[in-house]
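Worked problem 6 (solution included).
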Amino acid sequence: REQNITKAAETLHVTQSTLSKQMMNLEAQLGKQLFIRGKRKITLTDEGNFLRNKGQQILELMSSAESAFLTEGEIITGDITIACGETAAMDFITENYRKLHEHYPNVKLHIHSGDADTVMERLDKGLADIGLLIGSIKQEKYDYLNIHQNDVFGLLMPQDCELAQEKIIPIEMLKSLPLIFSEQTFLGHQNIDWFGINYHELNIVATYNLIYNATFLVEKGVGYALCLDRLVNTVGRNLTFRP
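Solution. The predicted structure is:
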C-alpha cells in the first residue's frame, strides 16, 4: 500500500531492516518473488498481488467471524455483507435494511457491487452472507428467495440521437445498431430468453461489467448500451433510456 519500505516500516512501527528481513523470509518461505524493488518504490509481482488478495479475504473472514460473537448483554450486533449486481432491486434491499437498522442500530451493512461472477465468487468463498442476482441460480447449491422485483431491459442512448424519438425499441432493430453489452450477456453468463437473436448477428463494439463507465461511450456516440432501467442518472447528461 505504501510502495515505500521506509513509510511501510513507520506504519507498522518496526525498523526498516526488520521489515526488509521479514519480506525476504516470506519470499524464501513461499519460494516466489513477491516484490519488485525499485530505486524509489516497491511494487508487487503477480504472485505478490495474489497473496495480498488472499490475505485480504482471510482478514475479512476473521472480521466476519469475530462480529458474529460480539454481543453486549441482549444487544444484537454484527455485520451483514451483501454482494450484488447492478439492479434497481437494491431499493427493496436497502428499504428493508433501513427498517432492520431502526430496531438493531448496531448491525452494520456492507455492500460489494460487481457482476454475477464476482457475486458468486464471494458467496462461494464465504465473503458474503447474501448475493443479489438477476435470473436463475444454482438452486441445489444455495438457499434462495425470489424477491419478486422486475427489471426492465432496454437501450441507453444519446438524448439527441434519432432513435431517441422512439418510445420502444423493437428487438429486431438491435441487429442494425452498434451495441455495448454487459460482459455477462456477451459471454453467455446470463440467459436472456426473450432476446431471440443469435449473438453473431449483432454488432457488439464494446463490453462492460458495470454500466457507469460505459455511459461515456454512449455519450460519445460509440454505441447503444444494453442495460437495465433506473441504473443511470441521466439528468444533466446527453443520455436517455428506451425499453
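Discussion: The two ends are 44 Å apart (CA to CA).
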